[in-house]
Amino acid sequence: MSVTSEIINLWLRLAAGVMLLLVLAAPAAADPADIDAAARGVVRVVLIGERDGQPVPISHGTGFAVSPTRIVTNAHVVSEASQDDTLRIGIVPSEGEGGAFARVIAISPRNDLALLEIAKGSLRLPPLALASGAGGTGGEVSAVGYPMNVDLAQGLDIADVFRPQPAVKSRGFLSGERPSRQFDTILHTAPIARGNSGGPLLDPCGRVIGVNSFSADANGGDAEFYFAVSLRELLPFLEGNGVKPVVNALPCRSIADLNAEERQRLEAEQAAARERLAIRAQADGEAREQARLAAQMEVLDARENAMALALLALLAAIGSGYAAVVWRRDPETRKRAGMAAAFSGVAVIGALTLWFTRPGLAAIEEKVAAALGGDDGAESTAPGGDTAAEGALICTLVAERSRVTTARTDDVAFDWAADGCVNTRTQYGLSAGGEWSRVLVLEDEAAVAVNRYDPDTRAFRTDRYLLGQEAMDKVLETRAQYSPPACGVSDAARKLGEQQSALLALLPEAPNERLVYGCKAKRVTP
Length: 526
Description:
Layout: H1 3-25, H2 32-39, E1 42-51, E2 54-67, E3 70-73, H3 75-83, E4 88-93, E5 100-108, E6 113-118, E7 140-145, H4 148-154, H5 158-161, E8 168-180, E9 183-188, E10 200-202, E11 208-215, E12 226-230, H6 231-240, H7 255-329, H8 334-356, H9 362-372, E13 391-397, E14 412-416, E15 421-422, E16 426-427, E17 429-430, E18 436-442, E19 447-454, E20 459-466, H10 469-479, H11 492-504, E21 513-521
Antiparallel strand pairs: 1-2, 1-4, 2-3, 3-6, 4-5, 5-6, 7-8, 7-10, 8-9, 9-12, 10-11, 11-12, 13-14, 13-21, 15-16, 17-18, 18-19, 19-20, 20-21
């Protein structure tokens, strides 16, 4: 290879390395599935008047659920309705068959926030989580809402405003946090327009980091920037009005990242296990060799002693036999000859017995096995060295292995039986691959939770899928086609495993959330 070719190849390798570093250093990109899941709780907020006895939209903005029946929006979106009793506030969800009316329960013009409550029993929404501690610059963000210019471009008429429509999503980047108009705001570049006011500004995991409020003037070709009310304003506002939103301060990581980390963790554990086995094998080999040497010395000593005694007995037999022959010739010593002959016979028998019962070389292995028989080499695989896989357990979230947006992260009480019965009443299914699971359809949350438990490692995992209405309808239809067997029913685990397979086939490839728990035996208080 020429010098020029070597230089070119070197530059190519350097360029590839730089590109890899740039990719690794790039901020996390928003996951469309997370933004779509969050958009389920985003609504159009419509001010409704009356014309010729018919309801007509006066204006509209955007809002998002912070509880199943409470919605955050901008104060300027609903301020007119709070001062004019001829106007009503309509809430139009992103999907479904219709909307509901709402009332203002708190309004704060100082920081452009308002809290609405949906009429009782008319509509329930999946709440969005708030990403506590979000801020800084450079991170990707998404604005979700109902910009009027999109409605106009689509040619929507008045009736369409009251019809559920998917919210519009736009992407940009954080540009920082700064006070503006006497309240704390987030500056970003995710495009918003009239109608977006009151909608959420989301991080890449679909968690709220601000409430979109207004935009900078872009006349004269200036760059367009947008402002959202920050969580420093929103959180005290909600707490002051009795709302406890879901707040999530965990790092935002993708399921793909978690899967990669899990593979690395398993590979590291397997490598560590192989190293422990190698060390143990070496130690066992040394112990076995020492036991073999000790057993060999003991057996050889016993073998030599038995052979020496047999030889002495044989010599005694020969001597006694010779004496018996000699004494038998003399009548006076014949009586002695008989005794000598008898002793010679006994000595021969003793010699033969000692010879044939001397320890053999096989006794060495028996003594080695006996010396090492107290150590079976078993190792605990359960967390904390606790080998019991059954009984009452307490499972605690392992945050570094989890991805959480809206789910609760409380400890889980988990009483596991070998037949897959949990808490003495809930049967888990066993798949053909040997995995224990239970699929839960959470209709109120428009979600599916797949709980899995591994008795060998005592790891409990929940994968949560946040579904749109069409997908949720298919899940509910499939779920209605079977009844899970109760604990104790013959072959219950296999039957449920087969029943759940059709439901699992309807779920997306990756969940929106993954909660991994480590389980330990529950301490029983006396």
